[in-house]
Specification:
The complex is a heterodimer of chains A (about 180) and B (about 180). With about 180 residues, chain A is mainly alpha-helical. Chain A contains eight helices and no strands. In chain A, helix 5 packs antiparallel against helix 8 and helix 6 packs across helix 8. Chain B folds into two domains: about 50 residues, no CATH class; about 100 residues, no CATH class. Chain B is built from seven helices and no strands. The chains are: A mainly alpha (about 180), B mainly alpha (about 180). Chains A and B meet through helix 2, helix 3, helix 5, helix 6 and helix 8 of A and helix 1, helix 3 and helix 4 of B.
Chain lengths: ~180, ~180
C-alpha cells in the first residue's frame, strides 16, 4: 500500500495516474476533512462543498506542499482556514439552523440520546463566533498548541488564548444548561 | 486567592510552567478543583463528539478519467515519422552544400528574374488598357510569350529548399496536432 508521501510524489509527476493518486489521498482523508468543516459550519451541504474545495485547492497547490510534513494535519488545517474564510466572506454570524437527521426519532433510545447530545454540542459550537469556532477546532480536534494556532491563523498568541478561553466558557454554560 | 480561568485552561492544555504550584493549590481548594472538573467535563464532551459519515465521495472528481481523444491513425503517425526522417536526411545532405556553396549563390540572378517578371506584368497591363473591342482588332491582339527565364537551378538550392519545406511541414504538423493526444 503506497504511503501518503508516495501518493503526493506521484501526484506531482503530473502523468496519467497523478489524479488517481490524489484521489486515493482524498479517499483516505475525506471523512476527517469533512468533519472539520461540519464542526465549524454545522451544515452538511456547505461542509461537503468546503471539504471538496479544500481538496481541489490542495491538488492545485500540491507542488508547494512540504513533503516532510504530514498530509493529514496539513489538509485539516487548510480546511479549517477555508471554513473561516467562507464564514467571514458570507458575514454569517447568525446562529446556524439546527440540522437534524430526519430519521433520528427512529433510533434506539441509547443511540438516540448520544445522537441528541452530539447535536447539542454541535449546536453549541455553531453558536460561537467564527474565530472562536476555528480556535476550538484547531485546539481540541487538531491538537495544535497555542503557538501553532497563532501561526496558522496569523493572530497574536494573546488572541488565541482569549478566543479559546471565552469559547470554552460559553460552551460550558450552554452545555451545562442543556443537561 | 483562587486560580484564574487562564491558569486552569493552560493547565489542562499543558501550556503552563506552573503545574506544581497549580496542583498544590488544587489539592487544597475545593472551589478551584470543582471549576477544573467542569472544564475537564467540557473537554470530555468535545472529545466524545463522533465523526459524521459523508453521504458522497469527495474523491470522485479525481478518480474519473478524462476521456482522451482517439489516437492518431497509424498511417498518419507513420507519415509524420517518414517526413521527419526524410527531412533529417535532406538536411544532412544539404549541410555541406550550404556550407560551401551558399556564398557562391548569385542573388543578382534572382533579382533580374523578378525585374523581368515585373516588366512583363506592366507590359501586359499596358496592352490590356489599350485593347480595342472592335472585332477587326481582335485577331491582331497577340500576347507575346514571356521571355522570362527561371534562374539556373543547382542541386544544392533544390536540396536546401526541400529541407526547408520539410522542416516547415514538420513544424506545422506539430502546431496543428499538438492538442490531438
Amino acid at each position: 500500500m503506497p504511503t501518503d508521501r508516495d501518493l503526493i510524489l506521484q501526484t506531482r509527476r503530473g502523468d496519467a495516474d497523478s489524479r488517481a493518486a490524489f484521489g486515493e489521498l482524498v479517499t483516505r482523508y475525506q471523512t476527517s476533512v469533512f468533519n472539520v468543516c461540519y464542526r465549524i459550519l454545522h451544515e452538511r451541504g456547505e461542509a461537503e462543498d468546503l471539504a471538496q474545495e479544500t481538496f481541489i485547492r490542495a491538488y492545485d497547490r500540491i507542488h508547494t506542499f512540504d513533503i516532510e510534513r504530514e498530509f493529514g494535519p496539513w489538509i485539516r488545517r487548510v480546511a479549517a482556514n477555508l471554513c473561516l474564510n467562507a464564514i467571514e466572506a458570507s458575514k454569517d454570524t447568525a446562529e446556524l439552523d439546527d440540522e437534524r437527521d430526519a430519521d433520528s426519532a427512529q433510533l434506539p433510545e441509547a443511540v438516540y440520546e448520544v445522537h441528541e447530545r452530539s447535536e447539542t454540542i454541535r449546536s453549541a459550537l455553531a453558536s460561537l463566533p467564527a474565530h472562536y469556532r476555528v480556535v476550538v477546532e484547531l485546539r481540541h480536534f487538531q491538537e495544535l498548541s497555542y503557538e501553532e494556532i497563532a501561526a496558522e491563523l496569523k493572530i497574536p498568541l494573546s488572541d488565541v488564548k482569549s478566543h479559546l478561553f471565552r469559547a470554552r466558557k460559553i460552551l460550558a454554560e450552554k452545555l451545562h444548561a442543556s443537561h | 486567592m483562587h486560580l484564574t480561568d487562564e491558569q486552569l485552561n493552560e493547565y489542562l492544555d499543558n501550556e503552563t510552567n506552573e503545574r506544581v504550584q497549580i496542583e498544590t493549590h488544587l489539592s487544597s481548594c475545593g472551589e478551584c478543583a470543582a471549576r477544573l472538573s467542569m472544564l475537564q467535563a467540557l473537554f470530555t464532551e468535545l472529545d466524545s463528539l463522533p465523526e459524521v459519515a459523508l453521504t458522497k465521495s469527495l474523491a470522485a472528481p479525481f478518480l474519473t478519467t478524462r476521456s482522451l481523444p482517439a489516437p492518431l491513425p497509424k498511417f498518419l503517425t507513420l507519415t509524420v515519422i517518414l517526413q521527419a526522417a526524410f527531412a533529417l536526411t535532406a538536411i544532412i545532405i544539404a549541410v555541406p552544400f550550404v556550407a560551401n556553396l551558399l556564398p557562391a549563390i548569385e542573388i543578382s540572378s534572382l533579382m533580374e528574374g523578378i525585374t523581368q517578371l515585373q516588366a512583363q506584368w506592366i507590359n501586359l497591363l499596358d496592352k490590356l488598357s489599350t485593347f480595342n473591342l472592335q472585332p477587326s482588332n481582335l485577331p491582331t491582339f497577340n500576347l507575346q510569350p514571356a521571355t522570362f527565364q527561371l534562374p539556373p537551378l543547382e542541386i544544392s538550392s533544390l536540396l536546401m529548399a526541400l529541407a526547408g519545406v520539410s522542416v516547415l511541414w514538420i513544424l506545422g504538423n506539430g502546431v496543428f496536432l499538438r492538442n490531438q493526444r
